[in-house]
Specification:
The chain is of the alpha/beta class and 466 residues long. The protein has two domains: 247 residues, UDP-N-acetylmuramoyl-L-alanine:D-glutamate ligase (3-Layer(aba) Sandwich); 180 residues, Class II aldolase/adducin N-terminal domain (L-fuculose-1-phosphate Aldolase), CATH 3.40.225.10. Helix content is 42%, strand content 20%. A seven-stranded mixed β-sheet has the order 16-13-12-17-20-19-18, with helices on both faces. α9 runs antiparallel to α10 and α12 runs parallel beside α14.
Amino acid sequence: MFYIIYNTFYSLLNIFFLLKRKDLKAQINHNKFMEKKICLTIAGSDSGGGAGIQQDLKTFAALDVHGVSAITALTAQNTCEVREVFQITSDFIKSQIDVIFDDFNISAAKTGMLYSSSIISAVSGYAKKVPFIVDPVMVSTSGDILLEEEALSILKEKLLSRAALITPNIREAEILTGIKIKNFGDMKKASEELSVYAPVLLKGGHLSATDILFYDNRVYKLKGRYIEGKFHGTGCAYSAAVTAYIARDYNLVDAVKMSKTYIQILIENSCYSGKGAEILDPLYNLRREAEKIGVIEELSKNVEKLLEIKNIDMLIPEVGMNFGYALKNPETTGDIAALNGRIVKVRGKARTSGCVEFGASKHIAGVILAASKFYSEIRACLNIKFSRDVLQACFNSGLSYASFDRRDEPPGKSTMEWGTAGALKKAVKAVDIIYDRGGTGKEAMIRVLGTTPSEIIEKVAGIVAE
């Protein structure tokens, strides 16, 4: 009792002294805030939320910089069209930018839709303050004009020459240079011509998935996977990502390369939010991390349920059990959670060694990766003991099955991925179990597949009951 009272008193005393030092606490919090880099976006507002200011600020947040903004135009816009544009006055745009620079320590800035000569002239004066990434927005994804024709010469004269980087897409590069771009050679020619103003990131998304960075008289070829479709806000997110990485003190080449990787991921995981083009979600990676928490919780809960099944120890193979559960659309073993130990038999009872974490299992992960390529709904797997009796129990409980023979395995292949893929190729639909009869030095095994860990538990309970 004395020990409890002593510790409680000691804790309260510490809290008292911490609260007394409010000045120090405020200073610490202030310093923490100041460590976060700040990026400015000067662009138009997209009422559909897929591009412009909205997309820039989401990208900044996703890449751990604080975003501030100056709005140049309001658009009545969705994924299908830009219905109307309302231009903000140059004086008010300057007022927005001035008030930001008066208060914030801006590390980098980007421009998007500037729309008119007067806005470009007003904005260009700030390009010497910090690195300016200029995204020369001219035409929307839906084909609507976002830059007045007479503003083109002012854009070249006053802004491009002051940029730290210019990020045109194919169509914008054609307008700026007059070069018709049909292939990679044309991209090189156009980027070289534009480099008289500043370094150039020419985005090839409308032609291929390959971009060009022309910097310091050198061409960097940035390859990607081409994804068929129409995407809204890619240019905004791309240039915003470069701005964020520049603000975080990456050099230009690394900032562009990292942004390319980031945008590739966003395009591959875009979604239909409206009736038109697909929208990128800059917070995809954060949602992915949040999804990991749910996966770990669900799997951990069902590991406990597995241990509670009566006679579950009868299904534990000599190498032990492992239980895996994947994120949606897994790409690598790092997307799959499993026990970093095994479920083993100790004195006739099932016991776990280790805890659930991502990337913990190569074998179970290999099965899930291979199976999910055939049937994306398959995200969970548990290996159990193979025997004639257990296999018959699987059949008796109504589970569908497929199998593979280790003797047919070609050299240099991952057994789990090769075997699972081979078994599912022969199956006409998704199956509940995949088994093999082992090989030299390899234990025979049954793998139970399912959409969730809970479904696996139901199937295993049915096997044990037989």
